[in-house]
Specification:
Elements (H helix, E strand, L loop, with lengths): L1 H10 L14 E7 L5 H8 L7 E4 L27 E2 L19 E2 L25 E3 L2 H4 L10 E5 L5 H12 L14 E4 L1 E2 L1 E2 L2 E2 L2 H6 L8 E4 L3 E8 L9 E9 L2 E13 L9 H10 L12 E5 L13 E6 L11 H4 L4 H8 L9 E6 L7 E3 L10 E3 L6 H18 L2 H4 L21 H10 L35 E3 L14 H18 L4
Parallel strand pairs: 1-2, 1-14, 2-11, 5-6, 14-20
Antiparallel strand pairs: 3-4, 6-8, 7-15, 9-10, 12-13, 13-14, 15-16, 16-17, 18-19
Helix pairs in contact: 1-6, 2-12, 9-11
InterPro entries: FAD/NAD-bd_sf (IPR036188), GMC_OxRdtase (IPR012132), GMC_OxRdtase_N (IPR000172), GMC_OxRtase_C (IPR007867)
Keywords: FAD, Flavoprotein
Pfam family, one: GMC_oxred_C
Length: 519
């Protein structure tokens, strides 16, 4: 810990953002939430020196632990996490049955940089070029990437031998090794991530630290917004308008007014040996630079995918580790895994070498809800993800599991004597192993997402009763209020959404500038 802190303080060239405890009574723009989109919006709006911008963030700054890529799992359930949980599932379509209380954790970043501080840093999809500073020459010199932006993107400087086996195994199955942030998405690749010199490159580090001395930008941390203040309509516009916010800091409620707009970017909701630590601190490499443990990414097609082969329906995250790899210290906790499940399936493997493929559903048909629990802004919402309400989602994931099993059987993995875990999931032993009913039961027990909720403030036309914002991200029926974050997506993107949410921050900032005559 001391060595990591030394590196964090000595090597990072940019100082921490300044936490302004005394804010002005009024700003041109108030940005609520300093996460993947909010940090971008605050940066871009404050490029106009004649505008004043206040960024309000409920959490504090990043820590020396959050800076270490491979320790992403240790940030969940910490003070940097909102610690959300799903509601128990309905009997007719159960999920999360292997978790304590039948509830899955939904970690979200309560920190400057938001969930870009907690995520596995995987970078997927390409508008993106405006933000990107790609530091892998073979990628940066293509038309689908760029250099010189605020956000550093590159491969981890360290990987296990299994990472190459993952890519080679994919080729044996007929998939190309390619840049899946390029022209085509289907294929296998070594993971690209938002890291810089072996450390996490969050949006706070990328977009806020370099501009920390701008006089027209104030950042107030530990400031939780509780209410949007509404004012009288203008004489020429009968709609109510947002004129400011109410927020709590240090146990005291405060108000601040916005002359132009309020921008909501609050979100849609074991290696630490000394030698490894020294390699990380001195050489900026080694296992600690691993992207949250993820070394490979692939996009594959099940039999349910579009027949063109260009619209994959399953994404793989490959990791040379598993739930057992830390001896049950942290991974089982962040999964909220029941003792009976861990002790049966993973505890016997504590001394074994294991690897994992997570098949992820790219185009789910099942949709959930986030509802207010009550009128208290401090109360956590009720999260009902409604996983597996559509049978096709289950069937697609089962096909993804079978492709993963086929990958294990390739020559590339058989060099390592790879074989699947045959221990059956508690609660599913009545079904024969490797049958569709068994895998459906296993999915409904060990329900696992990679925490990418979107769509709670859907963009759409005014005549759509489910739409919240218009194509310029303005809230329908209100003036002076926009939403700029992943919640505006009408549907989830087919890949890790951190890059697209940063893009939304870039595009939303441009829309605001255009509407206020600053181009």
């Amino acid at each position: 810990m001391a060595l990591t802190f030394f590196r964090y303080s000595a090597v990072d060239p940019e100082s921490r953002p300044i936490d302004v405890k005394q804010v002005r009574s009024e700003y041109d723009f108030i940005v609520v939430g300093g996460g993947s989109a909010g940090a971008v919006v605050a940066n871009r709006l404050s490029e106009n020196p004649s505008w004043t911008v206040l960024l309000l963030e409920a959490g504090g700054d990043e820590t020396e632990i959050s800076d270490v890529p491979s320790l992403a799992g240790y940030l969940q359930l910490s003070d940097l996490d909102w610690k959300y949980k799903t509601a128990p599932s309905p009997e007719e379509s159960p999920y999360c049955l292997a978790m304590n209380g039948d509830r899955c954790f939904w970690p979200r970043g309560k920190v400057l940089g938001g969930s870009s501080v907690l995520n596995a840093m995987i970078y997927i999809l390409h508008y993106f070029k405006k933000s990107e500073d790609n530091r892998n020459p073979y990628l940066a010199n293509t038309t689908y990437h760029s250099q010189g932006g605020y956000l550093t993107v590159q491969e981890s400087p360290w990987r296990s031998p299994l990472a190459l086996a993952f890519v080679k195994g994919g080729e044996e199955l007929g998939y190309e090794m390619r840049d899946i942030n390029g022209e085509k998405q289907t294929g296998f690749m070594i993971a690209q991530g938002t890291i810089r010199r072996g450390s996490r490159c969050s949006t706070a580090k990328a977009f806020l630290r370099p501009i920390r001395l701008r006089k027209n930008l104030h950042i107030s941390m530990y400031s939780q917004v509780t209410k949007i203040l509404m004012g009288r309509p203008k004489s020429d516009d009968p709609r109510p308008r947002a004129i400011g916010v109410r927020y709590m800091r240090d146990g005291v409620y405060r108000t601040v007014r916005a002359k132009k707009e309020v921008v909501l970017s609050a979100g849609a909701i074991k290696f630490q040996t000394v030698s490894v630590a020294m390699d990380y601190i001195i050489n900026e490499r080694g296992p600690l630079t691993s992207l949250g443990g993820v070394e490979g990414v692939a996009f594959v097609n099940t039999k349910y995918a579009d027949k063109s082969g260009l619209l994959p329906d399953i994404q793989f995250h490959f990791a040379p580790s598993s739930v057992n790899s830390d001896g049950g210290e942290q991974i089982r906790k962040v999964l909220n895994l029941r003792d009976a499940v861990y002790n049966t399936m993973y505890k016997p493997l504590v001394e074994a070498e294991t690897w994992t493929i997570l098949p992820l559903l790219l185009r789910p048909l099942s949709k959930g809800w986030v509802r207010l629990k009550n009128a208290n802004p401090m109360s956590y919402p009720i999260i009902e993800p409604n996983y597996f309400t559509h049978k096709e989602d289950v069937l697609t994931l089962i096909e993804g599991i079978r492709i993963a099993l086929n990958l294990s059987d390739t020559k590339a993995f058989q060099r390592f004597n790879s074989r699947p875990l045959l221990t059956q999931m508690p609660g599913c032993r009545k079904f024969p192993f490797d049958t569709d009913p068994y895998w459906e039961c296993a999915l409904r027990h060990f329900t696992f997402t990679i925490y990418h909720p979107v769509g709670t403030c859907k963009m759409g036309p005014a005549h759509d009763p489910t739409a919240v914002v218009d194509p310029r991200l303005r809230v329908h029926g209100v003036t002076g209020l926009r939403v700029v974050d992943g919640s505006i997506m009408p549907a989830i993107v087919s890949g890790n959404p951190n890059g697209p949410i940063i893009m939304i921050g870039e595009k939303g900032s441009d829309l605001i500038k255009e509407d206020w005559g600053y181009v």
